[in-house]
Amino acid sequence: MNAFARQIQERSGQNLSRCYQCKKCSGGCPTARWFEWPNHSVVRMIQRGLKDELLGSRAIWMCITCETCGARCPNGIYLSPIMDALRALAVEEGRPAAEPAVLAFHKAFVASAKRFGRVHEATMLAAFMLKSRLFLQSGFLGEAAGGLKLLARGKIPFRPSSVKGKAQIDRIFAESDLKL
Amino acid sequence: MKFSYYPGCTAHSTGWEFNASTEGVFAALGYDLDEIPDWNCCGGASAHNLDHFVGLGLPARNLAIAQDAGRDLIVPCAGCYNNVKKAQVVLERGGGDADRLARVLAFEWRGAVDVLSLVDWLERPGVLDAVRERVKRPLTGLKVVAYYGCQLVRPPRVTGRPSWENPTTLEAACEAVGATALDWSFKTDCCGADLAFGHGDRAEVLCSRLAGSARRAGADAIVVSCGLCHANLEMRQGGLGVPVVYITELLGEALQVPGRDKWWEKHIIDPSGLFR
Amino acid sequence: MAEATHTQRVLVIGGGIAGITAAVDLADAGHEVVMVERLPSVGGRMLQLSETFPTLDCAQCTLTPRTVETGQHPNIKLYPYAEVVGLAGEPGAFRVRIRKKASYVDWSRCTGCGACQERCPQKVKTNPFERGVGIKKAIYTLSPQAVPNKPVIDADNCRYLTRGKCRVCAKVCPVDAIDYEMADTFVEEDVAAVIAATGFELYPMAALGEYGYGTVPDVIDGLAMERMLSASGPTAGQVLRPSDGRVPRSVAFIQCVGSRDPENHKPYCSRICCMYSAKHARLYKHKVHDGLATLFYMDLRSTGKGYEEFLQQSTEEEGLVYVRGRVSRIFREGDKVVLWGTDTLSGQPVEMAVDLVVLATAVTPNPEQAELARVLGIPADPNGFFQEAHYKTGSIETGRDGVFVAGCAQGPRDIADTVAHASAAASKVQVFLSRLRREAA
Amino acid sequence: MNRIGVFLCWCGSNIAGTVDVHRVIEEVRKLPEVAHAENYMYMCSDPGQDLVKAAIRDKNLTNLVVASCSPRMHENTFRKAAASVGLNPYLVEIANVREQCSWVHQQQKDVATRKAYNIIKATIEKVKRNAALEAIRVPVTKRALVVGAGIAGITAALDLADAGFETVVVEREAEIGGKLRRISRTFPYHEPADAILAPRAEALRDHPNVTLYTSSEVTAVGGYVGNFDVEVATDPGDGGPPETRTEKVGAIVVSTGYDLYPVENLGEYGGGRLPDVIDGLAFEGLLADSFRNGEPVRRPSDGRPVRDVVFIQCSGSRDPENHKPYCSRICCLYTNKQARLLRDRNPGCRAWVSFMDVRTDCKNTEEYCQQNIEERGIVYVRGRVSRVWQEGDRLRLWTADTLTGEKIELDADLVVLATAVVPAAGYAEVSSLLRAGVDANGFFQESHIKLRPVESSTRGVYLAGAGQYPKDITDTVAQAQATASKIQSLFANEELAQDPLVCRVDPDLCSACGICVPICPYGAREVDALAGFSRVNEALCEGCGACVAACPNKACQLKNDSMVQVVGEIEVFAAEEGEEDYTCAC
Q1: Helix axis angle, B16-28 relative to B247-255, nearest 10°?
Q2: In CATH terms, is domain B2-118 a member of 1.20.1050.140?
Q3: What residues of C are in contact with residue A21 (Cβ under 8 Å)?
Q4: C73 and chain D: CB distance < 8 Å anywhere?
Q5: How many CB atoms lie within 10 A of CB D342?
Q6: Which pTM value belongs to this model?
Q7: How much is the ipTM here?
Q8: pLDDT tens digit string along D188-224?
Q9: Fewest CB atoms within 10 A around its CB: which of B225, C2, C228, C373?
Q10: D404 φ, ψ to 5°?
């Protein structure tokens, strides 16, 4: 087994060598249509050590952890922790994300949790919009319209609330190498 | 009977009516919900993507608080439930991650409390009987489909659900208040809520298929138990106009919990017509 | 009808595990059995094997109690180193003609001391039993545990018989058992029924052009690998390249070689290759821990009890690498063997240089089987296997009354299925004999 | 004074490669009472056995120790060899210096050599006190019982009956024929199953040597090989209590067959919820209807002729995580046939097969399958279907396309799940009644996977058909005939010789407390109240020693394995090896 596969296997806790390529994972995946390669190929590519391809792929950001593939896998391989491991590794190594908007959202969300202890949607969304430069894209108006609808219904408060035990939150983040 | 309660960050924002209806229904049934003190964000659908430990540490802190409170923890939002439950499983299994959590959060997991979704809660003995007893206005004639999505049922090794492909608890709850729960084929398919930011069009591909299928099955509404699913289904169903209501709202209507008008106001697709 | 004493005798052709099983069943049931084996001792293919899937038990260890039992059984009359050349008479009263091949050793004197083999100066690389991976002497026994344990002289390679000089064996034999003048002899036996259990051969590598026509020294077949892995084999269980005797750091195993290839070779599935290839790769990994074992396959066919689990364990715990796709070409490049193929799961081409290639060549009938079918008056199928009378319920019967078949001579099967098939043949023979008795009464 | 002979086998390099066989023999020769000691390359070979026989004769040996492989291999070989020259075979003991010594100490030659010597010395200590025993002779009832009358049971019973033995057949259903009754036509020649079954069923019913009990079950089994008492309960069919009778038989065939894994367990395919998602046997029923009525195959929900059918193989098989880990062996074969027959019955119909590996490994089935794919246009897609759901009056599936790997959606009228083959309901009861063990999946366990495929763990009980493991009709028939052969060999004897290494009770020590009775797994113990002690039924006793351990009075002893012998062995071993190293040596 190559070093990359070993690393992913250790981080994800999944035994990749159990895979016999039945493709049941790919068949049931709701988002595989937006991957470069379907789920079973991702496993195969890890086995073959294709690190650069995977860490720079859309697939790792288009997997949304619905756990359908893992639950149906005849060999009990869960792809979501594998994808988690790939994503975390990509972030750790500072690789440019093939889906920058998705990474920007996750970063904005976690930054908000880190800052306040709870996520404050208004500031988080603002940060996300800026970071992702989504407002420059054609789809933005639709997104903004959705946000406006929520605002109009009084659903997004303007003032963030914060937790008192921030020291513990800080310790959690200090334990990791996550850079936001 | 008392439960600890983890409302989650959306309780005071996008999931306001979920929180309000949950509290209302529990009260109407004679259950106390004690919000655990100083809870924090569970990490949402983001933390685990960026860092393994942060993804576990955030929900684990809430578990530590719940353990001190000493009662089983109700987590209505499916996404929050899944994160907290995963942390519970990691702590119970023991090993490197569990040791690290105990060290960083300076606590010892004793396994004294359990994490419950609303589905878990509805399966507790006596809950549906209590609902049936207290129905004030049966929802006779209302046809719904129940939607579980991903996080309430998967992964089965976290949720412990034997029948994750075809759960029937929410249906039983709908039937308990006199509604008709229709069989349909998408109750555990993903709505794509996590695609909403950045790829709303893609989320809409998934959502509109769900809503379309619900409509074809003859449903007047989709019943959910997750703030993210709810928002996504309402906003991205491709203009079909199928109302999406929380299971607690449905129960609350039948139990005639006060303040319901405020719930309906929060919806993008107004469901109040269902109950006239 | 022949005399009653004859009606209970049965001829078993072939002393492999099928023949042994049928013979012992019949002998235990009180019937006299005449067993004819073309090699000097009984045991058949199992005698060549290393360990058996899926338990990885030593093949000799499970086999020798059976060969010993066959040799000792008072109801079994053994004709080793012999062939059936004629069958006359009718069902219930056959007369079989047996050619006892000249062994050049008087077995009635020989004590099996082994001095002749030890001292014989002529090493033979072509003895088919060792499949080219080891040598035998020109006077040899198949194995130290052979039953019977008596040597024969390989007339094609014996220095004295070919060049008229040597006689070392005759000089060292303490009991004067060597007889260079010995010729084939013929005997006849009366039997009521016949079981043909003549086993299988592997498809010749010489027929595989794209894999080098069998001329690349480090491309071997499955039975050669068995000999190499066998603890009692020529390398004492070590895996060594035939070309230079080095331990191979990487081995490729190729399945479906000549099987499932209706256009060029054999159309059928050989049924045992998926399992023995996985076994080979695992045993190789047990001996060369850091070795790389890659298996090329079409479909994995692990259909027996415990087989699927064995394969899963092979990939999960033993680190075998499976590639789905046929290898297109094999050739020699320096001291390596190069393979060109495709990983059909990823659609990408694969080029590999390895130290050793093991071909799981198709299971075929023995070359002599066609002639035997003619002698016995029974049909062969288009692939040369004996044709069963009925696909579902008559895989033992041949269409000729009193003549039955068992084991791989009827079609490829593993040991467990062969043993069951052979016992089934013993039952069909007894039903037949019972009918004869009733008709005689 | 004993004259003990010791024979150490090299087993080629298996033993001699690790153990210094010459040194061991040198040392053994010095031991008291050892009259002869030698080693040889393969003691089990003809020349090796000749050495043993010659030494017994020439040196008047009284007891033998053969140091070699496990006694499971060659104990019998050497006992026979000894008996052939007049030495009582129970004076021969095997010292296992291969599995228990050389194989486990391959890197420690000194340790292995010392341990081999000590194992031999301990075995000498034991064999000194062995008694010359005679085999226990029990009569044989030459009647057989067959449990389950599918094609396996029918075949076994017909062979036995044709060979002249009375055979009792017990079938749970009202009709015999088992699963074959539900099959339309068989692969690869499309022979109607009834053409196979009907003549055999009729032959069985009419056979003078066969007693057939349908609607019946085995409810109790007593006795032992050659002498079983089997209670059979028959449902009279009128709601009354079952009629029971006891049959005396000498051997039993277990041919209880299989069931299919319930479709309800496959939630992702809507099994049990969607009427047009059915299993393979249900599809056989649809095919049978089609042949009978001369009409196309119609689907269950609305009776419409089907136009698009998807067959899903490995439904519950090869799925260690969620269902069954094993391959069900027959599904690839019958699915291909079903798709082919469907194309014949419903011209223009589409037939898709979702597969993992095509396992057409039986004779002529590879050719048959290829022909169906090439000439009948059956589409094979490699990959597991992930999901099946209802969409209007059609079914829809998600799977991955075999070439591109991309996800595709398929529409179908009917989905046929080739569900895993599992042991027939009630296997556990049959297993415990007959003391015939089952494996982790519930299939009856053969006593050796290669060389004893039809023998169960209990002598006189044989296994045929899919109850032992999934198999096709051809292999089932062969296996059934094999059980018939084993039983005919058994019935060739007037008496059976049983191993005399059984329990012996000292009546003076026994207090008739009865602790041994429930502890005996073989039902061999009984308190004789009149005589005042607990007796051993020697024919039933397997010599397991459970009662020896349980007896508070030390009244139970195993023959040739007495307490004195066992303790003697341990003491010798411990004295040589030191207790710390080998506390678990016994």
Answers
A1: 40
A2: yes
A3: 324, 345
A4: no
A5: 25
A6: 0.87
A7: 0.85
A8: 999 999 999 999 999 999 999 999 999 999 999 999 9
A9: C2
A10: -85, -20
